[in-house]
UniProtKB/TrEMBL annotation:
Family: Belongs to the oxygen-dependent FAD-linked oxidoreductase family.
Organism of origin: Thyridium curvatum
InterPro entries in the record: BBE, FAD-bd_PCMH, FAD-bd_PCMH-like_sf, FAD-bd_PCMH_sub2, FAD-linked_Oxidoreductase, Oxid_FAD_bind_N, Oxy_OxRdtase_FAD_BS
FAD-binding PCMH-type domain sequence ranges: 47-222
Name of the protein in its database record: FAD-binding PCMH-type domain-containing protein
SUPFAM superfamilies documented for this protein: FAD-binding/transporter-associated domain-like
Length: 482
């Protein structure tokens, strides 16, 4: 298999691509391979993550050479930028010993066209750096998530959701054109006008179709005024949090809800926190009436701040770091997407909090997060891009972190919670979730869960552009047969 099969041939080929450059390629024979080269994000199954090689190319031609080496040796390819895949799929994933991983860390390019305010970005840029570079290049911004260590290459090809998505759309909705290396080892351009079928697939299922080296993206002026809010609820029992959740869900279900408003509710062993951002002035925030509709009790503590754009993103990053660490750790996660008609009825909310209160999590380090979505993301047709969740109003995701590894009690707790939610809202339809919250427990047939009704079209594009399935992981798009 992979690490022994044709090892000499692939090592020779990749070393030729690197042409003697130091820090260009690492192999399992390196005693520090896992620490210096592989560096899996989810340590729950890190011991099983061992790609044939990890390459850090510097140019698109380098990437093309790596893809050719892998294909000629009948190996698979996966790329990572920030490397935050919950299943470590940028490295091939657990047990995948036939994968060449491409680390895009050297692709840090940034170029702003001040006549169009379109930016060209290398796929290895991290979101925290993107924010700073856009700010410094004329006070520009775009929609993206708030974790600063996430890489643009994966984020902008799988969806890219954040607090500003309701106002501006997802990160991938900002992508106008890409440079991409395809399975035949060619450097291509893709856009609505050129290789449009490939462009459709890359905007939501990128890891299955190529290695993007750079993006051309539209930008916006930074919001001039921002209000951030945080309400903490520490009641007697988690069961007491049900009314808080119901009131928050009633608010976010309003079809006329101001698109400048973003919010999430975070449930932890200590209670609940409602966080969010309003992109407007404090006067506009008060005039919107939203603050009056947020849950409030005598045992809640609320704070309102008015930061600038960079300060708002820094606060969001700090908040996310408390629950979704940017550090490597062993964790288990489940998730689900909800349309407006799928929102939790009262009985489902009560069942969810009853489950949380009455079962052992096996770890004190867990969180359940419901994120408000919708708005501008939903303005795009369901089949306009590979990203299929244009009808979703919110997503939930749960996390359990345990050291040195996640125990069965934690898996049972989060899986049981997931089942309780499904039972509460009904199992009568094909439920889907965001591929950015990848769930290895769904197994090798998870594709319809991630891409829904768009999956058959993606299979056809895959059969055209990658019939040998070079770009492959456990849950990637498979080419249509026949």
């Amino acid at each position: 298999m992979g690490n022994s099969h044709s090892a000499t041939a692939i090592e020779t080929c990749l070393s030729t691509v690197c042409a003697g450059r130091s820090s260009c390629v690492g192999f399992p024979s390196d005693p520090l391979y896992q620490i210096n080269w592989v560096k899996p994000y989810n340590l729950d199954k890190a011991a099983a993550v061992s790609p044939v090689a990890v390459v850090r190319p510097s140019t698109a031609d380098d990437v093309a050479g790596v893809v050719k080496c892998a294909a000629d040796n009948k190996l698979k390819v996966q790329a990572k930028s920030g490397g935050h895949s919950y299943g470590n799929y940028g490295l091939g994933g657990p047990g995948a010993d036939n994968v060449v991983a491409i680390d895009m860390a050297n692709f840090q390019g940034f170029r702003m066209d001040e006549s169009t305010w379109q930016v060209t970005l290398g796929a290895g840029n991290l979101l925290g750096d993107v924010t700073k570079k856009l700010h410094d290049a004329g006070g520009r911004a775009m929609a993206h998530g708030v974790c600063p260590g996430v890489g643009l290459g994966g984020h902008a090809t799988i969806g890219g959701l954040g607090a500003m998505s309701r106002m501006w759309g997802s990160c991938l909705d900002h992508v106008l054109e890409v440079e991409v290396v395809t399975a035949d080892g060619k450097v291509q351009r893709a856009s609505e006008a050129q290789n449009s079928d490939l462009f459709f697939a890359l905007k939501g299922a990128g890891a299955s179709f190529g290695v993007i080296t750079e993006f051309v993206m539209k930008t916006h002026p930074e919001p001039g005024d921002i209000v951030q809010y945080s309400y903490s609820f520490t009641l007697g029992s988690l069961r007491d949090m049900a009314p808080v959740f119901k009131q928050w869900q009633d608010l976010v279900a309003d079809p006329q809800l101001d698109r400048r408003f973003g919010s999430e509710i975070i449930i932890t062993p200590l209670g609940a926190i409602i966080e969010g951002t309003f992109y407007g002035t404090e006067a506009e925030w008060k005039a919107s009436g939203i603050a009056d509709r947020l849950p409030s009790t005598g045992r809640s503590a609320g704070t309102i701040t008015v930061p600038d754009w960079l300060g708002a993103l820094a606060h969001d990053a700090e908040t996310e770091a408390l629950y979704l660490s940017n550090l490597q750790a062993p964790f288990y996660s489940k998730s689900l997407g909800f349309r407006r008609e799928d929102l939790l009825p009262d009985r489902a909310v009560e069942a969810m909090f009853d489950f949380l209160a009455s079962h052992d999590a096996g770890t004190p380090l867990w969180a359940v997060i419901f994120d408000l979505e919708g708005g501008a993301v939903n303005d795009v047709a369901l089949n306009a891009t590979a990203y299929p969740h244009r009808d979703k109003l919110m997503f939930y995701q749960s996390y359990g972190i345990a050291v040195p590894q996640v125990g069965q009690a934690t898996r049972d707790y989060l899986t049981g919670l997931h089942d309780a939610i499904l039972d509460g809202v009904g199992r009568g339809r094909a439920w889907t979730t965001y591929a950015g919250y990848v769930d290895p427990a769904l197994g090798p047939d998870a594709q319809p869960v991630y891409w829904g009704a768009n999956y058959p079209a993606l299979q056809e594009v895959k059969a055209k552009w990658d019939p040998a399935d070079v770009f492959h992981n456990l849950q990637s798009v498979r080419p249509k047969k026949g």
